[in-house]
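Practice problem 4.
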């Protein structure tokens, strides 16, 4: 009697990724772990999706079409030739040429799917010179991951996030580069509502802003085809990663001709975007030389951002890319709210030009690589009264030109993974409800300033405070001590203390009585 096939053990994503890192220790640098694992994750994920679609074609009675590419690509599934399927890789996992087989599989997939052109590594595994036994063992770990049960998860972003969090000290942290947590990306999307138009991210990382934005559109019965995605990324490996991530999700994007510095080699010089979402590197130093970019058109109407900190360079790059009705949501270090010098001049002009819409202080411990509290800026090129059709609703905006909304979210958030905080859907709902109520006609009946949470400041108030954008300078702070009668409070505390001492003496007496009954004489 034939033995039953042994069921494949399925492990959690986190367990598998930790095991994969363990397999790579001593063979490659920790900063390289994610690149080794990501392409294998992609290969298995693409193959799992292919096998699902293949089974569906057969179930639909169209078995004769199971090798027809169009029957896969119509549902955003990559067609894989036999030698590029995960099953083929696993059958040959212990062969001496397994690295070459993986490289060949990735090359074949890229060649057969135009949207992946330039996204997958070229002869990467052959060049790694990884021990065959170690590579086979790593393949076994990847094989244990269930990748298609959750159709909504950002698989590539999740892997990227995991390795960045576990090995952040090896990369990124010193450069001010942080993976943007999903809850923050969702908050930005929920505030901007990018249902249709051009969406741009000037420092797009693994593409998480795009993935979550498209999920937002689809969750609100929108059509992702109504959103055109543009992005730019500096690092070549991350540029490829973004292409891979978006291709898996079926998101078409223009990431420029190459990986490039947004300041020095802008890949979208003439772009005007309806929505901009970004998490630029914080406090970049020496981002340009003193004689570089001094007459760049992106600074037109403003002072040239200082060489010592790129924060306001990022702000002006974003402002220059906004369409006439464009809105932007991006993160910056809190120092940008009150910097002096050139930064002060630029900030003052932004406020005078009615471009700043809202400033939100976020909780600490949101990021995997830093515990600092950061700021979410919302910019808007058109704060005038107007009526806009957004998906299935008509929105009547009021004139907010000489107002800025300040919000403090530091008392929000729920802990997860022990040391981190995330904004829950309820938190985000509260924030967006207040923000949209403040923006719209009839806000007098739906919006109110709330101590320690939100305040709508006038231009005159901001000018009076010398154009600082620190929310705590405007939001009312509740002094919970000022209404206390200290004499009465002290008498109450003394009375409570006396009662506690009395109870303690009674407890001692009871305890001595018990010991005495047992024949022991004890002094306390």
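Answer key:
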């Amino acid at each position: 009697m034939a033995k039953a096939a042994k069921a494949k053990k399925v492990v959690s994503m986190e367990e598998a990724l930790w095991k994969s890192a363990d397999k790579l220790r001593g063979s490659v640098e920790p900063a390289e772990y994610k690149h080794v694992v990501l392409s294998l994750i992609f290969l298995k994920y693409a193959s799992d999706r292919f096998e699902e679609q293949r089974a569906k074609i057969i179930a639909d009675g169209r078995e004769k079409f199971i090798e027809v590419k169009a029957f896969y690509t119509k549902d955003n599934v990559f067609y894989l030739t036999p030698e590029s399927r995960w099953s083929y890789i696993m059958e040959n996992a212990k062969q001496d040429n397994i690295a070459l087989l993986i490289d060949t599989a990735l090359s074949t997939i890229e060649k057969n799917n135009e949207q992946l052109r330039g996204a997958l590594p070229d002869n990467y595994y052959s060049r790694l010179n990884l021990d065959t036994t170690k590579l086979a063992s790593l393949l076994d770990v990847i094989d244990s991951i269930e990748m298609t049960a959750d159709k909504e998860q950002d698989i590539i972003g999740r892997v990227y996030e995991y390795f960045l969090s576990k090995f952040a000290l090896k990369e990124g942290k010193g450069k001010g580069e942080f993976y943007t947590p999903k809850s923050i990306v969702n908050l930005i999307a929920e505030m901007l509502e990018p249902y249709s138009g051009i969406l741009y991210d000037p420092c797009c990382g693994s593409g998480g802003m795009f993935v979550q934005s498209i999920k937002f559109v689809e969750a609100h019965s929108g059509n992702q085809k109504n959103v055109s995605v543009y992005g730019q990324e500096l690092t070549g490996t991350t540029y490829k990663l973004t292409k891979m991530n978006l291709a898996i999700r079926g998101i078409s994007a223009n990431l420029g001709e190459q990986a490039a510095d947004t300041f020095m080699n802008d890949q979208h010089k003439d772009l005007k975007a309806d929505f901009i979402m970004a998490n630029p590197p914080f406090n970049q130093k020496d981002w340009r030389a003193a004689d570089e970019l001094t007459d760049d058109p992106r600074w037109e109407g403003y002072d040239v951002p200082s060489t010592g900190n790129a924060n306001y360079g990022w702000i002006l790059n974003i402002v220059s890319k906004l369409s006439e009705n464009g809105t932007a949501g991006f993160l910056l270090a809190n120092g940008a709210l009150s910097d002096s010098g050139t930064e002060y001049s630029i900030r003052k002009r932004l406020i005078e030009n009615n471009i700043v819409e809202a400033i939100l202080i976020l909780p600490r411990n949101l990021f995997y690589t830093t515990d600092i509290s950061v700021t979410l800026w919302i910019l808007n090129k058109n704060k005038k009264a107007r009526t806009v059709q957004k998906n299935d609703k008509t929105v009547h905006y009021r004139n907010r030109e000489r107002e800025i909304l300040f919000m403090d979210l530091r008392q929000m958030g729920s802990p997860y993974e022990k040391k981190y905080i995330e904004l829950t859907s309820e938190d985000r709902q509260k924030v967006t409800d207040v923000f949209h109520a403040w923006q719209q006609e009839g806000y007098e009946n739906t919006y109110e300033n709330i101590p320690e949470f939100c305040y709508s400041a006038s231009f005159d108030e901001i000018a009076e405070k010398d154009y600082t954008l620190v929310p705590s300078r405007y939001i009312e702070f509740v002094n919970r001590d000022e209404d206390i009668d200290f004499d009465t409070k002290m008498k109450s505390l003394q009375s409570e203390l006396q009662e506690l001492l009395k109870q303690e003496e009674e407890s001692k007496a009871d305890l001595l009585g018990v010991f005495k009954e047992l024949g022991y004489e004890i002094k306390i």
